[in-house]
Design a protein that fits this description.
about 240 residues; mainly alpha; two-stranded antiparallel sheet; globular
Length: about 240
Amino acid sequence: MAVYREDADLRFLGRCENEDLDLLVSLITRDPRDNTLRWTETLSGSDNYKRFHPAHRNYWQEIAAEIQTFGASSIASMFRGGQGVLYREVLCDVCDHTGVKYKKEEATETIELSLLMKMLEKSLSEMSLAELREFADSMGTELTAPTVPLVLMAIQTAVRSSGFAAYRLSVLMLSTLAKVVLGRTLPIVTYLTLTRSISVLAGPVGIALSTGWLIADIAGPARRVKVPACLLLACLRQQYLYKSL
């Protein structure tokens, strides 16, 4: 059974909504290909999971502990009494695997945003010119002749200067990930224009998620979970930060 290590970067999970945590729990515990329990997970066997599910916030530490074990070998965890590594180490491993450029002294949320932007860049590169134009229009970039670098630059500039822009991006990416990774459609009430962005992104994201960049079988079962898990955590953190303002 995974044992939680005190981790400042995961403490915010205790303040997330149960509906948001449900995405993370589903990813951790079930293989979306056939909806069976993952053989590597221990969360569903914990006492608090059995007692409180689906009130996930009541056992957020068990969820966090499972995430921490993604970055540690089972042998190493055994010698640490079932504890994994801190989330930041998991995140940096994912960034190294996916070719994300980051600085080790940067804040965790900054590194996470770099991961989200890398995923967005991968998705945009798979779009046709018509899809790219539709996505740019739906994101309000006001680009008359959108290209992948221009769209990325416009979104990066907006995210750096506005917490709202980062929040808006997290809503888009979270909904797209839910659709592609877990086969779920999340309701977006506040930003109806984002539904167009999601429909355009879903195809390219699906392509990205089915390549070696994320969940190829050669990556092994742990990486097939921890890469999308870090993406989900990045989205959840941005939403938590914006709502906490």
